[in-house]
TrEMBL record:
InterPro entries: Ant_C, Phage_regulatory_Rha. Residues 1-14 have a biased composition (Low complexity). GO terms for molecular function: DNA binding. It comes from Mycetocola reblochoni. It comes from the Bacteria. Residues 153-253 form the Antirepressor protein C-terminal domain. Residues 1-22 are annotated as: Disordered. This is Antirepressor protein C-terminal domain-containing protein.
Length: 263
């Protein structure tokens, strides 16, 4: 059954206006009256295939459900076709799931943003619910938060051995940057970039692939943002897909055998 999904604060006219700014974020949603983040959002923001995120949810289903039911919906595609299965995770579930993802720059940045968004949304919603009105009530609420945190930490420790296996899965199924690709091929990043330029994959003097190889699904240019003292700065990174890594591996082998084909 498709869960009711809405942004916090949505509803009849006259809803709490002071939460307006926070309610406009596109990361956290209310599903069944609970703040959640979708598997699609996690996949997009961590630059991992959605199917890989769903597989991670399935692999750790028991651990995730110890923090409540995992909500699912079948989301229809705008152009028709088979609907997409989407998971919706609450805060402890999302936090636990993120511990099993490789700590790339993108993943770490999203972890920080996710924690901040959940925190902000809880504070915004606090103005719409009853707050503790006495010291005993506040202490009980604090004790519940500590208990949840301890339970989450215990789950992280229990499932820690599974992290390496999932990292290997992501490395095999997902896109890698040039450094990671070079490591998988037992090369240095500079040497790999020089090789790709000589072989005609990249334009001269850059790590930007020619469009025809992007169209083949071998490379995926993405834009990332780094935080600098003078402000955020966007830069482009070239990711290599599994098909691209296989093509590079074949070209390397052909080069070693003096059987290089014309691109």
């Amino acid at each position: 059954m498709t869960p009711a999904t809405k942004k916090p604060g949505a509803g009849a006219p006259g809803a709490d206006k002071k939460a307006g700014k926070a309610m406009s974020n596109d990361i956290i949603q209310q599903v069944g009256g609970e703040l959640r983040v979708s598997s699609e959002t996690i996949a997009q923001r961590t630059e991992v295939e959605h199917r890989a995120v769903l597989q991670l949810v399935s692999t750790h289903d028991v651990a995730l459900r110890s923090f409540g039911p995992v909500a699912f919906e079948m989301r229809p595609l705008p152009g028709g076709g088979n609907p997409v299965r989407v998971a919706h995770l609450n805060e402890p579930q999302a936090t636990l799931l993120m511990t099993f993802m490789r700590n790339s720059v993108v993943v770490v940045d999203f972890k920080v943003e996710l924690v901040a968004q959940f925190y902000r949304m809880r504070r915004e919603l606090a103005g719409q619910v009853d707050l503790p009105r006495s010291l005993p009530d506040a202490l009980r609420a604090y004790a519940m938060e500590v208990e949840k945190s301890a339970a989450l930490e215990a789950k992280v420790q229990e499932d820690a051995p599974k992290m390496e296996a999932f990292e290997q899965f992501l490395g095999a199924a997902g896109d890698l940057d040039l450094r990671e690709t070079a490591q998988s091929l037992d090369l240095g990043r500079t040497r790999l970039a020089d090789f790709l330029r000589r072989q005609g994959f990249f334009s001269p003097g850059s790590t930007t692939p020619y469009q025809r190889f992007v169209d083949r699904g071998w490379f995926r240019p993405v834009t990332r943002v780094s935080q600098r003292p003078e402000g955020p700065k966007a830069y482009q990174v070239t990711l290599v897909t599994p098909a691209g890594r296989e093509a590079i591996r074949e070209r390397l082998e052909a080069t070693r055998s003096n059987l290089v084909a014309v691109v």
